[in-house]
Automatic annotation (TrEMBL):
Lineage: superkingdom: Bacteria
InterPro entries according to UniProt: ScpB_csome_segregation, WH-like_DNA-bd_sf, WH_DNA-bd_sf
Protein name: SMC-Scp complex subunit ScpB
Keyword terms, alphabetized: Cell cycle, Cell division, Chromosome partition, Cytoplasm
Organism: Bosea eneae
Organism lineage string: Bacteria, Pseudomonadati, Pseudomonadota, Alphaproteobacteria, Hyphomicrobiales
Keyword GTP-binding tagged: no
Residue spans of biased composition, Basic and acidic residues class: 222-235
Region (Disordered): 205-235
Length: 235
């Protein structure tokens, strides 16, 4: 493996400038096409010479893809090919229920994943207090099965409960390059998306802790038994 790495010619110094650029473009697009997950910039940089300006190379690839049914996008910390929205109906016709994309979530599940995205790391008890009703373990379990959330660090509060954070899959599924791309609260209000939250929430006494320490302890046991290794918030 080490020998193969030494033999790989990233510089392509023996090629004329124009051919070298085209070869670098081909390498980058081939690597992205073959990868099932977004390819980080650092990985792609290893495929081209030191004189290559990767952003300019990516821009040239995107220009050539304009007439194609897919784009090259930066999502979840890397580059990936994504089909264009106007072809979604054709894709659904072929793939049906197998079409990749955001999973079907209930109103409450959508609110929970939104709360975790904005407040992470956050405990189930905190989410329950925020929404004014108890958030069941089944909802948390479903979001984990979809790999939209994972276990975060234990919180510095009584019982040291586990917290929850979003995952790279969350970024990829919803098309965010990083958590910095989450919409501003003001923009969500203008779009009317927070009306949904108001419909789901009900008044609650801020001193009324709906989840007992016993509930949090059971959460800890479940996390230790079934969770993958703790994940810090994806950024």
């Amino acid at each position: 493996m080490a020998k193969a790495a030494r033999l790989f010619d990233a510089e392509l110094a023996d090629l004329p400038a124009e051919l070298r650029w085209r070869e670098w473009m081909g390498r980058i697009e081939a690597a992205i096409f073959a990868s099932p997950t977004p390819v980080p910039r650092e990985t792609l940089a290893g495929l081209v010479g030191r004189s290559c300006v990767l952003d300019e190379l990516i821009a040239d690839i995107r220009d050539e893809l304009k007439p194609r049914p897919y784009d090259l996008v930066f999502v979840a910390g890397g580059f990936q090919h994504r089909s264009k929205a106007r072809f979604s109906e054709a894709i659904r016709t072929v793939l049906g229920a197998g079409e990749p994309g955001p999973p079907s979530l209930s109103k409450t599940e959508s609110l929970v994943i939104s709360a975790i995205a904005y407040l992470q790391p956050v405990t189930r008890a905190s989410i329950s207090r925020l929404l004014g009703k108890e958030i069941s373990r089944d909802i948390i379990a479903k979001l984990k099965r979809l790999d939209l959330i994972g276990a975060g660090p234990r919180m510095a509060e009584p019982g040291a409960p586990f917290s929850y954070v979003t995952t790279p899959t969350f970024l990829s599924v919803f098309g965010f390059a990083s958590l910095r791309d989450l919409p501003e609260i003001e923009a969500m209000q203008e779009a009317g998306l927070l009306d949904l939250a108001q419909d789901e929430m009900m008044p609650v006494d801020p001193l009324d802790d709906r989840l007992t320490e016993g509930d949090e302890l059971e959460d800890d046991i479940r996390d230790q038994a079934f969770d993958a290794p703790d994940r810090l918030p994806a950024d």
